Amino acid sequence: MTDTEAPPGVPATAPPPVRNRRRRPAPYLLLVPALATLLLGLGYPLVRQVAMSFQEFGLAQQFGTADPGWIGFDNYVEILSDPTTWAVIARSVVFCFAAASLTLVIGMGVALLMRSISTVARLILQVSMLAAWATPLIASLTVWNWLFDTRYGVVNWLLVKIGFEGMEGYSWLANPWTFFLVAGVIVVWMSVPFVAFSLYAALTQVPEETLEAAQLDGASRTQRFRHIIVPTIRPVLSIVMLLQIVWDLRVFAQIKYLQGAGGTVSETNLLGTYLYQLGIAQSEYGVASAVAMVMLLLTLGLTFGYVRSLLREERAS
After folding, report:
1. Is residue 42 part of a domain?
2. Tens of pLDDT, residues 238-253
3. pLDDT band at residue 29 under the 50/70/90 scheme
4. Cβ pair 272, 139 in contact under 8 A
5. Which residue has the higher pLDDT, 59 or 115?
6. Count of the separate structural domains present in the chain
7. Residue 279 and residue 295: Cα distance in Å, rounded?
8. Its membrane topology, per UniProt (predicted)?
9. pTM: predicted TM-score of the whole model, two decimal places
């Protein structure tokens, strides 16, 4: 009996079909327009900014009256030896993690609430969050500025009414601590709808039979949440947290608007506004490009763990 023959009593099986391993070029050709657009829209500005971070590039170079000089790592040495840069980085990281964590907690709570309430109440809540999320940024910031206004703000008025007499005429934006409290409230308020919708969509994929079986076995609500719900929606949680860290680390519009409404710029700068101040206000484009590269490396470092966990889950699936 040869190696290809089946032993007596065992039915012969057909050999596995030979797959055509030749790859067709058509799918790759269809990717060319998208890849070309990405390279032109993202690749060139990134390469240009990296080059500028090693050059002396100011207003004269911007208008072409002088050639940009190659100065190596001088821009990086300048910003990394400046205590202001390290203060801005520390402030940005703390604000980023505080806002992202609070957004995730509130968003999860709202998602769980939407899962447990009636259909009508859920639709009302979803429409309300969608309206808040879709409101133009400047309009939202204007409303929040009115709420915390020193003389006419509703927040100060309510605090005085419930017994906090010292809050009459209090300026929330003049103090850096309360400035970031207001900024954090605005950033979280604008981010919660996205997180809530994303997590609610993930919660709809949690098997009800598994939750009911765990409840019959005596698992409490907290145990069901920790051991069934969270592991099931962990990929979505990781992606949402990753996006929130990236967005909150480069927050700009909210901080810039509040600074113009009364905040102290030197004590409330985050990386986004610090980059704007160096590049646009002071025309130090080379130094600003170096700050942008540090900001990029910081973002990659903070999100590395989440990206690695996503890749691990992708391989496991």
Report:
1. no
2. 889 989 998 999 899 9
3. confident
4. no
5. 115
6. 2
7. 14
8. Multi-pass membrane protein
9. 0.82
